[in-house]
């Protein structure tokens, strides 16, 4: 896919807009009528009302889509054939009219795709534009002479409908769909290419898809209902554009009567615009669920209740309860509509009825998958303000799951427990390390003091000076031996770096970045997190003697700071205002919960570290002054003691690394503030880009790992 974009010289866009092939427009209907198919416009006003509906699509392209594409340097994927997609036709008209606004090089790219070669070869007009394309494109020219010409002469197309290529766009990707070995048209490779293209783009930038009009059940066809299902299940937000003014407050039980009344207004003819009915059913489905959910909320949640994680989980459970009563009703409605649609289609097209039941069942199942998918959204073409707001919301929509799965919550709890225990143990070893070092310095200074103190100091006390020095020396050796055996400094630094790595892994999983991205094929993010967690456990004690310690003992409950306060209360919701350590974290909350606290931490440490550094420097200077004064007054007896204090202070300065810490903290604040400024400078669309989100999270987490792992001074 990368080479495809390099061949087209298309820079990485900030947004991808996919216009899914939407048949059922005026040109599409006219081509069927010319081919002898008995179709009539499914509008009470006939062709004039159909043209008005397409004018609404034109205004949508003109006032919403083109400004958005220009603002985001978008890549727009359209159909390459004339009249095969009403969305593409509306976009082409808007581009032609406003071409001077964008100049020779518009700020967006339009790539046209098609696999309708059978309909192109049905067009026998010598001046057809597709013939010019076939002459110019060398691979098409060779394929035409070797395969296509003979294939379509022998087999013909699926029907007598003729298309032509559109010359309104700058880049084209065409697939002839001919399987010369089986002697049939095969659209699956083209569908697979489209899916791979969309998946590749969705890993980098936000994507939205737009659909309207008519669908079929042909496997692999761009127009099929299955193609909409595939688009939705890939995670791409899809807008179903409604061209009819259905009642806005309709409930699910009223859909059948409302639609039957509409069929009466068009004289019982075949309403092939089934996407409009999907919009009707989805609106009624949402209205019914919201009404019941509101009723349940009023019954179960006290008014003015504080929004907590518990209340969010309760509301999530109420949403599930609100949906359950309508599932059977929705299934019956879809079965009813599928039977109605299929029978009308058979009458209009003169199709055989022997597979009618199978097609009814297949359509009902696929429509159910479409309606229930959370990525499907409905917009009215005649409501420009409403569709503008919806598009704006979708292009900045994060791609995180709304809730964490129960299995993911359990796994996260285990990870948090491991982090809390190892971080606590690292703190304990940190205290041991510093105490042991301070103890050695004090014992060394005491040894020097006992050696150089005047004999008169011990006249009034019966002590064995040499014995005390011997005992202190033994204590120094014992302390050194114990420190060597425990090795607290190494354990502290290893546990600190390992706990920091686990914490970064948790944040990467909660933000679904890098290997935990939802776009990674082959495994779920939870499985990838489990593998990384197990790998972390296996590598925890490598190169150390931690296995000989009490690392895996049971710890008091107060050690675990990230335990779930409530268990088995439903899935964690991302709508909570505070971080509960288990919900998926969108970028805005990641900045609030992770980036900003890091800046605050280092900013708070800088003054404290500077004061410690100045105090230590003053003490070292004082020792130097004392040494000079004692030397001047010829008090050599005390000079070794002062020198001992001086060397101890210098050793502690080197151990504590206050200079390096102050420099590191200052650089940390500068780097994190720079990253924060970069994030603030992005547009809403860019902040929804997986590339930008990955850069944000990886920059922060790599910084934390570098700070905790590579720097020897903690």
From TrEMBL:
InterPro entries: SLATT_1. The chain crosses the membrane at residues 435-455, 467-486. Residues 590-708 form the SMODS and SLOG-associating 2TM effector domain. The keyword Coiled coil does not apply. It comes from the Eukaryota. Keywords: Membrane, Transmembrane, Transmembrane helix. The keyword Membrane applies. Pfam families: SLATT_1. NCBIfam families: SLATT_1. This is SMODS and SLOG-associating 2TM effector domain-containing protein. It comes from Symbiodinium necroappetens.
């Amino acid at each position: 896919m990368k080479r495809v974009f390099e061949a087209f010289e298309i820079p990485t866009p900030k947004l991808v807009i996919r216009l899914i092939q939407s048949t059922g427009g005026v040109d599409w209907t006219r081509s069927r009528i010319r081919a002898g198919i008995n179709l009539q416009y499914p509008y009470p006003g006939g062709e004039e009302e159909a043209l008005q509906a397409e004018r609404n699509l034109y205004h949508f392209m003109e006032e919403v889509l083109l400004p958005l594409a220009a603002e985001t340097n978008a890549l727009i994927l359209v159909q390459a054939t004339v009249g095969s997609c009403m969305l593409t036709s509306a976009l082409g008209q808007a581009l032609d009219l406003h071409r001077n606004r964008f100049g020779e090089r518009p700020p967006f790219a339009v790539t046209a795709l098609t696999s309708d070669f059978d309909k192109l070869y049905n067009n026998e007009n010598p001046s057809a534009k597709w013939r010019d394309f076939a002459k110019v494109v060398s691979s098409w020219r060779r394929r035409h002479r070797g395969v296509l010409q003979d294939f379509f002469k022998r087999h013909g197309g699926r029907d007598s409908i003729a298309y032509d290529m559109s010359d309104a766009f700058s880049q084209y990707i065409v697939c002839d769909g001919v399987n010369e070995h089986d002697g049939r048209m095969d659209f699956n490779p083209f569908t697979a290419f489209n899916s791979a293209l969309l998946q590749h783009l969705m890993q980098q930038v936000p994507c939205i898809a737009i659909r309207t009009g008519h669908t079929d059940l042909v496997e692999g066809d761009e127009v099929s209902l299955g193609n909409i299902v595939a688009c939705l299940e890939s995670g791409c937000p899809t807008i179903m554009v409604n061209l009819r003014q259905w009642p806005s407050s309709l409930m699910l039980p009223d859909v059948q009567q409302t639609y039957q009344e509409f069929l009466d207004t068009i004289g019982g003819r075949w309403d092939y615009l089934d996407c409009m009915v999907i919009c009707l059913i989805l609106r009624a489905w949402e209205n019914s669920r919201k009404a019941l959910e509101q009723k349940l909320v009023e019954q179960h949640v006290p008014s003015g209740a504080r929004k907590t994680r518990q209340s969010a989980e309760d509301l999530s459970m109420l949403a599930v309860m609100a949906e359950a009563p309508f599932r059977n009703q929705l299934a019956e409605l879809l079965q009813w509509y599928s039977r109605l649609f299929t029978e009308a289609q058979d009458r209009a097209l003169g199709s055989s009825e022997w597979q009618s039941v199978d097609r009814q069942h297949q359509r009902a199942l696929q429509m159910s998958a479409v309606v229930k998918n959370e990525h499907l959204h409905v917009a009215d073409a005649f409501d420009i303000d409403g569709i503008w707001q919806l598009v704006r919301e979708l292009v900045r929509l994060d791609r995180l799951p709304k809730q964490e799965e129960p299995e993911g919550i359990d796994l996260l709890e285990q990870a948090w427990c491991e982090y809390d225990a190892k971080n606590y143990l690292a703190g304990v070893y940190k205290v041991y390390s510093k105490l042991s070092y301070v103890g050695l310095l004090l014992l060394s200074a005491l040894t020097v003091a006992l050696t150089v103190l005047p004999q008169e100091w011990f006249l009034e006390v019966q002590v064995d000076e040499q014995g005390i020095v011997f005992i202190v020396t033994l204590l120094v050796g014992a302390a050194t031996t114990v420190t060597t055996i425990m090795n607290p400094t190494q354990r502290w630094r290893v546990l600190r770096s390992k706990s920091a790595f686990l914490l970064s892994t948790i944040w990467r999983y909660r933000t679904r970045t890098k290997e935990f991205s939802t776009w990674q094929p082959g495994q779920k993010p939870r499985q990838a997190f489990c593998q990384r967690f197990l790998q972390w456990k296996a590598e925890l004690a490598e190169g150390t003697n931690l296995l000989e310690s009490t690392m895996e003992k049971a710890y008091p409950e107060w050690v675990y700071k990230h335990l779930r306060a409530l268990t088995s209360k439903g899935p964690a919701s991302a709508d909570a205002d505070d971080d509960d350590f288990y919900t998926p974290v969108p970028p805005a909350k990641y900045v609030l919960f992770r980036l900003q606290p890091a800046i605050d931490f280092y900013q708070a440490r800088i003054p404290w570290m500077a004061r410690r550094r100045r105090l230590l420097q003053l003490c070292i200077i004082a020792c130097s002054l004392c040494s000079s004064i004692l030397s001047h007054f010829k008090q050599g007896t005390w000079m070794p003691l002062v020198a001992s204090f001086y060397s101890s202070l210098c050793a502690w300065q080197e151990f504590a690394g206050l200079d390096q810490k102050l420099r590191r903290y200052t650089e940390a604040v500068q780097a994190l503030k720079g990253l924060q400024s970069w994030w603030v400078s992005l547009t809403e669309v860019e902040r929804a880009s997986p590339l930008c989100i990955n850069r944000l999270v990886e920059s922060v987490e790599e910084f934390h790992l570098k700070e905790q792992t590579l720097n020897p001074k903690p």
